Amino acid sequence: MKPAGRAVTQLAVRQTRRGGLLVLGLAAAMPALVAATYTSVMADPAAARSIAGLAANPAIRTLFGEPVALDQAGGFTVWRVGTVVTVLLAAWAILATTRITRGEEDAGRWDVLLAGRVPLRAVVARHLAVVMSVPVAAGAAVTTVLVLAGTDPAGAAVHGAGIGAVGLFFVAVAGLAAQVFPARAGATGAAVAVLGTGLLARMIGDGLTELGWLRWLSPFGLLALSEPYARNRVLPLLTLLTVTVLLIAAVLAAAGHRDVQGGLIAVASGRRPRLRLLSTVETFALRRLLRPLTGWALGVGAYYLLIGFTTVSVTGFLAGNPALADEAARAGFTGLGAVEGFIATLFALLALPVGAFTAVRMSAYVAAETNRHLTLLSAQPVSRLRLLTAELAATTGGALALVTVAGTAVWAGITATGGDLGLPTALAGPGTRFRS
């Protein structure tokens, strides 16, 4: 049993090591870079007070989180990139977990594996343990780089532990979704929905004081409540870890009460044929794109609609405080005093979801080819180049649709709050960022 178990663990390591090392490097590099620039940006106490005044604006808190200990390099680093690093780690944890568990099971590669001496519950547990090692390592790496940058070790430890705890939480969420849903797409979608809901709860809790309790219901909110470099609270992190342990227990229990290639949710054995968009290779690529594109568009649209709603408040605040605008420019936020400058700064973030979307879609195409889902199609008088070209065209169209949704959502939010921004200008902003 032990050699067989070790072989399963080694298999999981081989499937996650490249992506895990990449995420680990990014999680360590981003805090290190921001902490290194703190002296030149925020060393002046007056500058720190000015940025704190900017961060006190509810709209800014909604977008970037509640500012804590901005007079310290560690607190400034947490505010600038803490959420970005955490979301990156959480997204990787979800995709990696569903890929090497439900994805491998759906492809039939676990059939032979589970025909041996290792039961399904043990296989799931070993795969989750491997994925969980990455958030633990990422938290340790963040702590190390912040300590080496000269920040308070206690605050660095709390922040690193919080990032690792959030990563562990989403591994558990994705692992449970992989047991509940009988397909990888459903499991991934459910876990991503938990991520989006948690991030939205954190944003609302930070922006509206009377709804601050919502942060206790979000993993990102619990991370913020730990207040690294200020109060260094451990209770929120213990709460998050307790929920994670309960979820892991639920994963193992669910794995012991389902069939291989099945889920706790039963699916219909048959359905009426759906023949739309099956006439050509190009329309088939479009058909495969529509459902995931809808989910990505809803997420991107909701985020940029929120940005549109807050733009008038933020720019009006900065227009009345030119000193704050100057200090924000020194901190890397240029042109925030005007509507166009503010949305241009926020559109720089659009490259992340659009890039992730294109990478996921092309990975799905490669996976479909590797799993022989395209074998019968390739047996037709259709060249492989045409298949790839159709997929590239559909993915490019999806990316353009996402940037269009972002621009339209920003315009709608600004217009609804009395701002002055033309729709062509709003659409040109993300388009320019996308092309660059």
Automatic annotation (TrEMBL):
The keyword Transmembrane helix applies. Coiled coil: none annotated. The chain crosses the membrane at residues 21-41, 77-95, 127-150, 156-178, 190-214, 234-255, 296-319, 331-352, 392-414. Keywords: Membrane, Transmembrane, Transmembrane helix. The keyword rRNA-binding does not apply. It comes from the Bacteria. This is ABC-2 type transport system permease protein. It comes from Actinoplanes auranticolor.
